[in-house]
Specification:
19 strands; Adenylosuccinate Synthetase, Chain A, domain 3; alpha/beta; Adenylosuccinate Synthetase, subunit A, domain 2; 20% strand; three-stranded antiparallel beta sheet; ten-stranded mixed beta sheet
C-alpha cells in the first residue's frame, strides 16, 4: 500500500510544493492533511508561477486526484476564490475531493483570531489572523462546524447558535466588539453549500480503496515539523499536526500504509512569526539570504526571518517523522558566499549539546555552534546531476547528508520545475 508523506523539516516555506509537483506525474492522489489557508506553496511550471494555499499542489498535474483531508480547516470563500483563479488560467479543478469531516472556518473565528492576537501584545504568537487556531480549538472543544453540516441547515443552525453563546460573551464583554448573529453566520456558510456539494466525499474511504488497489497516495503537509502543535517550538506553532503522524490522522489512513517519508529542508533556514530561532541573522548576510531567496510569505507577504542551516533541527525532524529521504532546496541561493556557516550544535548556558534542548527555556537560550565550509561562487542553476555541481557545493551537500539523519535524495538548484537534481528515486 504505497503512501508517501511530503513534509517540512524546518519552520515551513522549504519548497514542499515543488517537491510534490516533482512527484506529481507518478502519483494518483495528492492529499492536503493539515492546516488551512495560513500557509502556501509556490510552484513554478515553465513561465507560470502558481501560489496555492488551500488546494494540494497535485491539482496542477493532470490525472492526479487532489484531496482536502479531514485534518484541514477550510475557509470556503478562500477555497472558491483559489479554484476560480486556477480555472481562469486553464487549470482543471474538477477532480477535487473535500472530506465531509473537514472543519470550516466561520467568520467569528477570523474575528477572534485577530482580536486575541492584538490583545496579546508582546506575547503574540504571530498568527496569520485567518481563524485557523480558533477553528481547531472549536474542533477539540467539540463545538466546530464540519463540511457535512452545511447540508443539514437545522444541525448547522444549532451548532452555530451553540458556538456563539460562548463567543459573543467573549467578543462583547472582553474585547468590546459587537455580537455576531446566528443568521449572518449561517447565511455566509450556506451560500457555498450547493457549489461545494459535488466535491464532498468520504475521503478516508476513497483513499483506503485507492491504497488497496496499490494506487500511489501522496500526503502533503502544510507548515512543518517545528510548527507541529506537539513537536514544534510551542507555543510558537500552528494548531495542527504537521508531522508524519498527523498525515495518518489528517487523511484517515493507517500508519502501516506509509512507505516513504520525504522531508524538505532549505540549504539554509527561515521562519515566519514569533519564537526562538538560534541561527537567525540580523546582519547583511540575513538580508542577502532574504533578497536572493525571495523570502517573503506566499500567503501573507511577510518577510521571513533567515539563518544558516541547523543540523540538530534536521536530525530532530528525521527522528520525529521517520524520514527516509531529504530533499534539499535552494542550494543555488548560497552561491553568493565565500564561506558558509553550518550549525552543528548549541551552547546552552555554557553546556554543549548536539540535540534540540528539551525545554522552551533551553531553546530560547541556545547559541549556535558553527562549522564553516568553503563556498563555490558559481552559478549552479543549470546543474542537472551531482557531477555538474562545483566541488565545494558537493562537499556542502555531503556534509549535511552525513549529519542530518537521512540521505539527501534530491537537490533544488533553482525555482523552476526542471531545476532539480535527482540523486535517488523518491518513489522506488
Amino acid at each position: 500500500m504505497p503512501a508517501v508523506v511530503v513534509l517540512g523539516a524546518q519552520w515551513g516555506d522549504e519548497g514542499k510544493g515543488k517537491a510534490t509537483d516533482l512527484l506529481g506525474s507518478r502519483v494518483d492522489y495528492v492529499v492536503k492533511f493539515n492546516g488551512g489557508n495560513n500557509a502556501g506553496h509556490t510552484v513554478v511550471i515553465g513561465e507560470e508561477k502558481y501560489a496555492l494555499h488551500l488546494l494540494p499542489s497535485g491539482i496542477l498535474t493532470p490525472g492526479v486526484v487532489p484531496v482536502i483531508g479531514n485534518g484541514v480547516v477550510i475557509d470556503l470563500g478562500v477555497l472558491f476564490a483559489e479554484i476560480d483563479g486556477l480555472e481562469s488560467r486553464g487549470v482543471d479543478t474538477s477532480q477535487l475531493l473535500v472530506s465531509a469531516n473537514a472543519h470550516v472556518i466561520p467568520s467569528y473565528n477570523r474575528t477572534l483570531d485577530k482580536v486575541i492576537e492584538r490583545f496579546l501584545g508582546s506575547r503574540r504568537i504571530g498568527t496569520t489572523g485567518r481563524g485557523i487556531g480558533p477553528t481547531y480549538s472549536d474542533k477539540m472543544n467539540r463545538v466546530g462546524i464540519r463540511v457535512q453540516d452545511l447540508f443539514d441547515e437545522k444541525i448547522l443552525r444549532q451548532k452555530v447558535e451553540g458556538a456563539l453563546t460562548q463567543k459573543n460573551h467573549l467578543l462583547v464583554k472582553a474585547y468590546n466588539r459587537r455580537a455576531i448573529t446566528v443568521d449572518e453566520v449561517v447565511d455566509e456558510l450556506l451560500v457555498h453549500a450547493e457549489r461545494l456539494r459535488p466535491m464532498v466525499a468520504d475521503t478516508a474511504l476513497v483513499l483506503g480503496d485507492a491504497l488497496a488497489r496499490d494506487d500511489v497516495v501522496l500526503l502533503e503537509g502544510g507548515q512543518a515539523t517545528l510548527l507541529d502543535v506537539d513537536h514544534g517550538t510551542y507555543p510558537f506553532v500552528t494548531s495542527s499536526s504537521a508531522t508524519a503522524g498527523g498525515a495518518c490522522t489528517g487523511a484517515g489512513i493507517p500508519p502501516t500504509s506509509l512507505t516513504r517519508v520525504i522531508a524538505i529542508a532549505k540549504a539554509y533556514i527561515t521562519r515566519v512569526g514569533e519564537g526562538p530561532f538560534p541561527t537567525e541573522l540580523f546582519d547583511e548576510d540575513g538580508e542577502r539570504l532574504r533578497t536572493l531567496g525571495h523570502e517573503f510569505g506566499t500567503t501573507t507577504g511577510r518577510p521571513r526571518r533567515c539563518g544558516w542551516y541547523d543540523i540538530p533541527i534536521a536530525r530532530y525532524a528525521a527522528r520525529i517523522n521517520g524520514v527516509t529521504d531529504f530533499v534539499l532546496t535552494k542550494l543555488d541561493v548560497l552561491s553568493a558566499w565565500d564561506r558558509i556557516p553550518v550549525c552543528v550544535g548549541y551552547d546552552v548556558d555554557g553546556e554543549r549539546t548536539d540535540e534540540l534542548p528539551m525545554t522552551q527555556t533551553g531553546f530560547h537560550h541556545a547559541v549556535p555552534v558553527y562549522e564553516y565550509l568553503p563556498g563555490w561562487r558559481e552559478d549552479i542553476t543549470g546543474a542537472r546531476s551531482v557531477a555538474d555541481l562545483p566541488a565545494n557545493a558537493r562537499a556542502y551537500v555531503e556534509f549535511l547528508e552525513e549529519r542530518s539523519g537521512a540521505p539527501i535524495s534530491a537537490i533544488g538548484v533553482g525555482p523552476s520545475r526542471e531545476a532539480t537534481i535527482v540523486v535517488r528515486d523518491l518513489l522506488d
